[in-house]
Amino acid sequence: MSKIRSIDSPEYTRVGGSFRDPSGHVYRVGERIIRTVTKVGKQQFELARQSGIFDALIKDGRLLPFELIEKKSKGVPCGEQVAYELEVPTLPFVSFPYEWPFTALKAAALLHLDIQMSALEKRVTLSDSSAYNVQFLGTRPTFIDHLSFRRYEDGEVWAGHRQFCEQFLIPLLLRSLLGITHNAWYRGTLEGIPVAEFSRMLKWRHYLSKNILTHIIVQTLLQQSTEKTSLVLDKATASVGKVPVEAYRKILRGLRDWIVDLEPFRSTKSTWQDYSKDNSYRAEETLQKASFVREFAASHRPKQVWDFGCNVGVFARAALGGGAEYVVGFDFDQGALDGCYTCARADGLPIQPIVMDLANVSPSQGWKGIEREGLDARRSADAIVALAVAHHLVITRNIPLGEFIDWLVDLAPYGVIEFVPKQDPMVRKLLALREDIFEEYNWEFFKDRIAQRAQIDRVCTLKQNGRMLLSYVRRSKYMSTVGTGSWCSP
Asked: How far apart are CA 388 and CA 450, in angstroms?
């Protein structure tokens, strides 16, 4: 961590989401990621560093490591007064809380609480509770903001309590208590799900929970009193007073124990629950598809694969088995992604499950429309795998087949796509209650459209129902820059 390196390039480009904290910002310098520590943040950074909290958290993988840089450039833009520059590793794929399945959000929440409790042992605390301070390496959550640490003052209350509730706890409770997924709501309210709005959804039986009263109802009352700016606020503030450090730890431990026990409310079936029963192809075909993906990965050795419609991760595992280094799995089925995350974490696999509707992928949004980058801005795949996906988007969502193929081919230079013909039971089921207006949905159009932009590498016909697998290599004139990774700032 203390190794000093030099930097030659003076070209600093600030990451879009890195602007709120006067203590420092994040920049791209070529292919490197640099975090600055300004003179404003110097004292607290040095205090945290000297406390040993950085070394302890980096050692066990809970904090992103860094190296100090011997700064030789004339400085970063905007006249920033820099005390230190830190180089941090480039993340394989940046994701946001509104893209995490329940299991990943839960792991991130527990990480935050664990770090807070570890910091208190060294008389350090966290200045906020932003979920955007966490990123994932596969299924392992990692804290990325080295400037969130500051001195703990005796008796201080938890400054980030409400933020933790709105960005971690409430999204989890939404699914656990009510069976409602947090992702769409969270994406529309980037700072989390407001405690007052969630409170209005609770039933009287929920008020019997001490945890609900402590972390939700009290927060709601404090927020309401703040908005009224009346004597109620003064009384509420006075009643809080100072909190002894052991009482602070007790709050954190109690909240952690509660979150550990939270599980998704199982109100409906999901792909994960019925995967082995409801698919329209046999186990033999699953093995055939996995073998195709494994051989594809062995041929191209991609650093990063985007697996669209990843389900529980069968073909993500096949890609890794063929030599892929990292897989980002996208799906819209919450149960499938929970299963994918749980199994990948148990086996220590570099698979990162992401909640994503391919007909409505995450856009760039936030301040100036660049604070949280959309999926297209974060493209970092060397290869894509899209099995049993096209027919759902084309027939269910009326996405033109040609446009979907062009989008996939544009994402990465190598790919595998599955074509499911109209005689397949799944497609017949999709067409059962609607008019067949999909004249272009046929194998010849599918194959020819890919051939316009790529060299078809291999074609395989599955034994049941005539499904086809096709792998390709994109032609050089259609090659776009493939990212080497990306970064998110808090």
From this structure: 17
